Inverse folding.
């Protein structure tokens, strides 16, 4: 990762929030079908509508020149996109970018951990909802726990700083909360618990019934460990706690119980090139159209991005009792 470079300008939205973080969804496809994220049968974006990896790298460059210092590659499962390492290499060499990070389900890490590290990725978030093969398979529908554990081990050996991401569903995996934290402590990983968000219609379960709040998780953990609040902020939804005498931090991402919009610092790009200004709203602009109408013209692209700051909404509200108002599934949004 290159340092400093030409620091240019800062993106500021209509509410004065600085936007310095973008999440790029490189594909909506996935080798898993997690029950909270997707339907069992999904139709995916036709390949010809996807941005090419070169187009994504070009958009990443424009954001870096506009002062964005952190890029997260996500999806769908980003590591199932062919030749995705090339994108990491291109983004990893951008001047001004401080952090290039990845969110993955871990299934391809045994193969790709080393090249990712070489491309300049230092931190990885790996999703892990269960340590029991049968439960893991029920939640992911098709995932194999052994493959993911091998991927986690490969990532550890490659020298990544690792955070686990865990979605807790009542009566599915809530009894594993302490086991998962112990797993993290034993390996010096961090772990974040995420409240399920109502993105897309899913047939598997009733989201209100499966809701298990961050406060409940905290209460479960405090029976065993003390959790010391940290002042750390990622400018996002996570609240972090340290577990004394360990190197592990526990985070809580609580879109229901703690709204996090007032200090939002991020935007998202879908795999079709739609720039989403808010996770829980539909305000967006079509960057694919911009770059295909003006190939190679980074100034026009940067101006479109600057203009989009005027439509970033103030925030969103999720209501578990009502049907989702956002029909995009998380794999499209880029979690
Ligand atoms: N496939 C990769 C993975 O699973 O890590 C990256 C994409 S996935 C959409 C990113 C994160 O979103 C995962 O940690 C997943 O658990 C989380 N996620 C998916 N659907 C969600 C939902 N409806 N509510 C909350 N988190 C969700
Ligand atoms: Fe795939 Fe990640 Fe969604 Fe699970 S959460 S279905 S691994 S994109």
């Amino acid at each position: 990762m290159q340092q400093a470079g030409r620091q240019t300008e800062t993106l500021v939205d209509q509410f004065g929030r600085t936007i310095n973080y973008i999440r790029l969804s490189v594909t909506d496809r996935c080798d898993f079908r997690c029950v909270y994220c997707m339907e069992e049968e999904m139709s995916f974006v036709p390949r010809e509508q996807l941005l090419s990896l070169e187009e994504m790298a070009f958009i990443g460059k424009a954001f870096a020149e506009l002062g964005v210092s952190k890029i997260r590659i996500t999806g769908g499962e980003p590591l199932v996109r062919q030749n995705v390492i090339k994108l990491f290499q291109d983004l990893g060499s951008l001047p001004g970018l401080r952090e290039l990070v990845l969110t993955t389900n871990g299934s391809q890490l045994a193969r790709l951990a080393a090249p990712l590290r070489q491309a300049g990725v230092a931190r990885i978030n790996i999703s892990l909802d269960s340590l029991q093969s049968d439960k893991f398979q029920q939640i992911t529908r098709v995932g194999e726990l052994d493959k993911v554990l091998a991927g986690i081990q490969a990532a550890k050996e490659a020298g990544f700083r690792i955070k686990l991401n865990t979605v807790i569903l009542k009566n599915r995996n809530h009894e594993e909360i302490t086991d998962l934290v112990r797993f993290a402590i034993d390996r010096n990983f961090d772990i974040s618990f995420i409240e399920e968000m109502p993105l897309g219609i899913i047939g598997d379960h009733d989201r209100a019934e499966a809701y298990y709040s961050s406060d409940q998780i905290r209460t479960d953990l405090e029976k065993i460990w003390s959790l010391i609040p940290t002042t750390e902020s990622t400018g996002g939804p996570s609240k972090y706690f340290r577990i004394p005498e360990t190197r592990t931090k526990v985070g809580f991402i609580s879109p229901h119980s703690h709204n996090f919009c007032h200090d939002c610092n991020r935007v998202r790009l879908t795999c079709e090139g739609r720039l989403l200004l808010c996770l829980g709203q539909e305000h967006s602009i079509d960057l694919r159209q911009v770059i295909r109408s003006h190939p190679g013209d980074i100034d026009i692209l940067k101006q479109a991005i600057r203009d989009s700051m005027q439509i970033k909404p103030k925030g969103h509200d999720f209501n578990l009792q009502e049907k989702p108002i956002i029909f995009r599934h998380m794999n499209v949004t880029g979690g």
Observations:
- Residues 13 and 42 are 35 Å apart (CA to CA).
- The radius of gyration is 19 Å.
- The pocket of iron/sulfur cluster (ligand 2) is lined by residues 30, 32-34, 37-38, 75-77, 105, 127, 330-331 (CB under 6 Å).
